[in-house]
Amino acid sequence: MAEIRNYTINFGPQHPSAHGVLRLVLELDGEVVERADPHIGLLHRGTEKLAETRTWIQSVPYMDRLDYVSMMCNEHAYCMAIERLLGIEVPIRAQYIRVMFDEVTRILNHLLGIGTHALDIGAMTMVLYTFREREDLMDVYEAVSGARMHAAYYRPGGVYRDLPDRMPQYEVNRFKNANTVRQLNESRQGSMLDFLEDFTNRFTGYCDDYETLLTDNRIWKQRTVGIGVVTPEQAKAWGFTGVMLRGSGVPWDLRKKQPYEVYDQVDFDVPVGKTGDCYDRYLVRMEEMRQSNRIIKQCIDWLRKNPGPVIADNHKVAPPPRERMKANMEELIHHFKLFTEGMHVPEGEVYAAVEHPKGEFGVYAVSDGANKPYRLKMRAPGFAHLAAMDEIARGHMIADVVAIIGTMDVVFGEIDR
Amino acid sequence: MSPKLERLSQALHEVLGGRLRSIVVDRGEVTIEVAPEDYLGVAQSLRDHADLCFEELIDVSGLDYSTYGNGAWSGKRFAVAVHLLSVAKNWRLRVKVFADNDDFPVLESVVGVWPSANWYERETFDLYGIMFSGHPDLRRILTDYGFVGHPFRKDFPVTGYVEMRYDAEQGRVVYQPVTIEPRENTPRIVREENYGDVGHG
């Protein structure tokens, strides 16, 4: 009789559904996974070490590059940590802008998460639609910060600048004729808020479209229902947060439980799953996008009515306005000191966490009073989720591993740091 | 101090008693320090005691205090800061433990208490060289296969020691000593207290 042996294969780092650079060493008994050993670190850049050699403000753009599909949420946690260390207040308008962009980011992240998850397990169409909507939201990013992805828009003490009055428009070129451009620019005639409002009105319809494609789809359900089941106890023991925890039926959302900025002023619901499988987590993500849409609408409404400053007035932390800097010696000195030596953060340590689209993203910052962080540690939600890969995937078929990676929504920028 | 933090520090005093080296409430956060020999027992009580209920370990972070305050540090060099969260009670806690030996820092592993500590301890070992006794699988995690040294220690240069390039003659990737010079654009400065009086001042 032939000898039966387990088979060890490499899944990734070049596999299209490995979401970047995940190398997964799988030990298989036939098609059943006996052991999964994720090898991470292929995208390790030493962000935390680099941050120790930069002034506090110079590290803001590094935060975008951690989880590169939810850029502003990372910046948010970092800026919040600095603000807590300094003990400064953020103007209320900046808080609303931050909440609005956090939710824009949440939609961006879930669109990519659901789109690629569906793509990985066979529903090719989804990603085409979700990326269409992502384009609109990235235009919003670009309008406000000048960059489609790596915005560096949140700054310690507020946000870099106020929302623009005019939405950038398409121009005629050899690929787009006047007629197409007119159509594309129809919703871009007003301010950025007008464009975003138009998007939020359209977006519920888009969500319905996605649900038509997936929610009752027989193949989608066969691939996700009962796959990757996590009980509430397991989820807590493995340090899960965000959708991975809520999908298992634990109503835990930092926006509700430990509200930061103005989340206690806006009205929204927190969806919770029942069985803790991939399908439930998909449903939670869909509902979260609709709730984010609600929050964005409320923020737009508030921001229209309440003009005001968007960054703190403390010039040891935030730069003075440009025109005053040009005219006033005092402001010029502040500007020069802030951008050369940087701000001095009082001694102490702080852990600031936000409800990132993927879970709890935290920044543990230790300052010894210098112009640079003494130690900066990023708590990435994906790191804890991926760590449980072995236990979740054990006993599943190899094709289900792809579904589990998709439902974890791993992004290597944050896991490898 | 908010009533909630007061309740938490009260409970910590009652449950941990003498095992508490220090307790600090700063900026709305509670930090306790425990001795390395008490660490595992404290972890167990923090998770299981009905008044504390820290059922989630959120983060483990290594710390190297050797250049803290430009050399003003006199305590032990290596520490681990563990961030805990209680979903039931909705509060957080930071536990700090300093390793006794600066040359060969060893702490007990809390994987048995919180399984999520597994990768976090591997990371701390990889980046700081802090050993965790009782850890089931203490391998490197973030650095390259065959990496030498612990890159987040303060005496490890940001540029590292080796660089990698493709060698056309040998037809493969080779390692060689770094050719770039370390460069510091902005010097690190610790100012006297109330310099420019930011925030609290």
Description:
- The complex is a heterodimer of chains A (417) and B (201).
- Chain A is mainly α and 417 residues long.
- Chain A has a single domain (7-414), classed as Cytochrome-c3 Hydrogenase, chain B (Orthogonal Bundle), CATH 1.10.645.
- Chain A is built from 18 helices and eight strands.
- In chain A, the strands form three sheets. A three-stranded antiparallel sheet of chain A has the order 1-2-3. Chain A has a three-stranded antiparallel sheet with strand order 6-7-8. Chain A has a two-stranded antiparallel ribbon with strand order 4-5.
- Helices cover 18% and strands 28% of the residues of chain B.
- Chain B has a five-stranded mixed sheet with strand order 1-2-5-4-3. In chain B, strands 6-7 form a two-stranded parallel sheet.
- In chain B, a hairpin with a 4-residue loop joins strand 4 (78-86) and strand 5 (91-98).
- Chain B is globular.
- Chain B starts with a helix and ends in a 24-residue tail after the last strand.
- Classes of the chains: A mainly alpha (417), B alpha/beta (201).
- The interface between A and B is large, with 61 and 51 residues.
Largest sheet of chain B: 5 strands, mixed
Most extensive chain contact? A-B, 61 and 51 residues
Structural class of chain A: mainly alpha
The CATH homologous superfamily of chain A corresponds to: Cytochrome-c3 Hydrogenase, chain B
The global form of chain B is globular
Average pLDDT rating of chain A? 89
Indicate the multimeric state.
heterodimer
The N- to C-terminal Cα distance of chain A equals 49 Å
DSSP summary: helix tally of chain B: 3
CATH architecture verdict of chain A: Orthogonal Bundle
Percentage of β-strand residues of chain B: 25-35%
| Number of DSSP strand runs of chain A | 8
Largest sheet of chain A: 3 strands, antiparallel
Provide the structure class of chain B.
alpha/beta
- Give the count of helical stretches of chain A: 18
> Could you please say which CATH topology of the domain at 3-140 in chain B applies here?
Beta Polymerase, domain 2
Mean pLDDT of chain B: 87
The strand count of chain B comes to 9
Radius of gyration of chain A in whole Å, from Cα? 23 Å
pLDDT < 50 stretches of chain B: none
Instruction: Give the proportion of residues in helices of chain B.
Output: 10-25%
